[in-house]
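User: Can you predict the 3D structure for this chain?
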Amino acid sequence: HYENTSFTFSAYLANLEGQFQKHVIERRQQEAALIAKDRSHPLTKLEGWRKDRDDGLTIWELHGPVWNCPTQKRFGPLGDNLGSKCVIYSFGISNAAIFEEAVMDYAPNCRLRAFDPTTTAEQVRTYKSLEVLRRPNSVFQKVGLGARTEVRSGREFYSGSQHTLKSLPTLMAQFGDEEISLLKVDIEGFEWEAFGSEHLQIPARQISIELHLPDPTHKKF
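Assistant: Here is the predicted structure, written as structure tokens:
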């Protein structure tokens, strides 16, 4: 919260950078303390952070998110929220649908469409961290988000296996959805390709996306 209303934008950015650098130092101290406390701890080794852990634990679980909002304000009328007719599209599940679970707990009447080309049917059926995908108003498809419908394979995917990709308009037509209430995208850099067309329209009221920034000289950037 800033009491000084004449706070300049450059000073605001400098304040953000200072807070971020402070958090970086704190994170390094926390990691060093973890290793010093127990060098045999499985999480001090690379194998302890594999994505196939049933509990969905990753190295990012050590640290909370860093953000700075000088003000908080609601946009839209009170009735404009995730109501009974809402539809959620979520791309990028892996083995832990924690975000999706939190949203569906908040708005249980929503319909969830979840997609990930690397998540298996066995994981969806058995993993506790994927329980939300087994709810009556949830649907999961083993496909990824792409610019078009196609099968891709090779080193560009973590597993190196073949995976099916579908475009957002194709999936929306499949489900008969005209509008998305909340669109969440975390697809490890493929967002640039999936949304790269200047003609693509995204009929979503809210978008939550994790951008994986390429080299600043990259033409897509």
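The chain is about 25% helix and 15% strand. The chain has a mean pLDDT of 77.
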